[in-house]
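cron nightly-structures :: item 1 of 1
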Amino acid sequence: MKEQNLSIDILEKNEVPDELALPLLNGIKSLCKSGKIKIIVLDDDPTGTQTIHDLSVITLWNEDLVEEMMKDNSPGFFILTNTRSMTEKKAIAVNEEIARNIKIVAEKLGYVPLLISRSDSTLRGHFPAELLALEKGLGKNFDGFVFMPYFKEGGRFTIDDTHYLQQDQELIPIASTPFAKDPVFGYTSSDLRKYIREKTNNQVESSSVISIDIFSLNEGTPAVEKILDLLKAGQYAIVNGTCLYHATVLALAVIHQYQKNKPLLVRCAPSLVQAFFGISHSKQLASLETIFSEQPAYRGGLMIVGSFVPQTTAQINHLLKHIDIIPVELKVDKLFEGDPLIYLEQLSDQIKFHLQQKSSVVLFTSRDIFSSDGIDQNTETAAKISNALVTVVKQLSFAPKFLVAKGGITSSDIATKALGVIKAKVLGQLLPGVVVWELDKNAKFPGTPYIIVPGNVGGEDCLTRIYNILNSYAEA
């Protein structure tokens, strides 16, 4: 049966006012401060920080750095794994290594790590491989897996076990969107129970997946805890959700399970992460004025766009139509012929020239999608394209006025490979779902605002709005 679109009017019938979540969020903050639970988010690309603020992100996970972060007074931290850009085999190895290091440090310091595997609200990522790898690395089984891809800022809602993407006045079943056609992470069902069956190659039957429905979430944490009590090792629970209250009820219930020595492994999108840290709302930034006061006024800003989804292409077109910005296109086919380094050096020289002329630049990949026969080949092709963007940015000898990266893999690779970021602080949001990092002193361009824009976030004017905001700060 074909999955049906829904009117967004159904959201009002299934939402609870955010004000009712506030007491629960305050309770979560108190629990995090008083207990020995440390929340550690393994983020498969940098966009998982888009709903939080005043927390740290690290891009390495050696024992010393993990220990430093675990000793910090904050309730937890993010580890940027960037595994969505890797082959499944590499992603498994990375998750196992991180889990082993967390186990060693947690046992040494006497903390209980509450692990969150943060991934895409449009269901792309190495699932369930990453969850199983974390179990193996920790050397123990969790008492069940909890899956909640709800993400309000991105218009992702789960109702009656079906996951939807909001487009204008309709909710579209996620399997009917371009995201489901991803050459690496594609899928065919919007019903999360069937999605799990599909992704486990029929090893997990849909009927064995527990559903936490909206009625139970509206009832509150005790009702959800009763359902979670039924979970057993290896079993999945999918969670519906349309509002912050639903995410907060679930987060508190999971924390209570940990307090009862029943650890659950969570797979989710950014909105649930927000609830786990007791954050009630995004932090709209005013501090950018201070950052921009330290930037050279005579340089232009740089926007880098690598995401291939149609949503991003529409945003590039809107930007070029409405903003006087220099377009620099990285033609993907040139990466597969001759010596691409010469071509990339020419692009970098072109960008440097315009930035020094106080003109802002948008560097974007050609919109042709290169698709190969195998999943690993597609992953390697995407990595080759991302590495080309890294090479161009790495050759810059001075900081642009601001730096924007669009796309999860793109923003991660630019941060780690081009800018050398090991640690950053999440300042807050420029727009809903658009996050600003403050790079630490060891990064290539310390003090430069680094703005991360997920590939699947924003209307067609998203990049245009971001440019206008940043330009207004820069010229103030």
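cron nightly-structures :: done
The first helix runs from residue 9 to 14.
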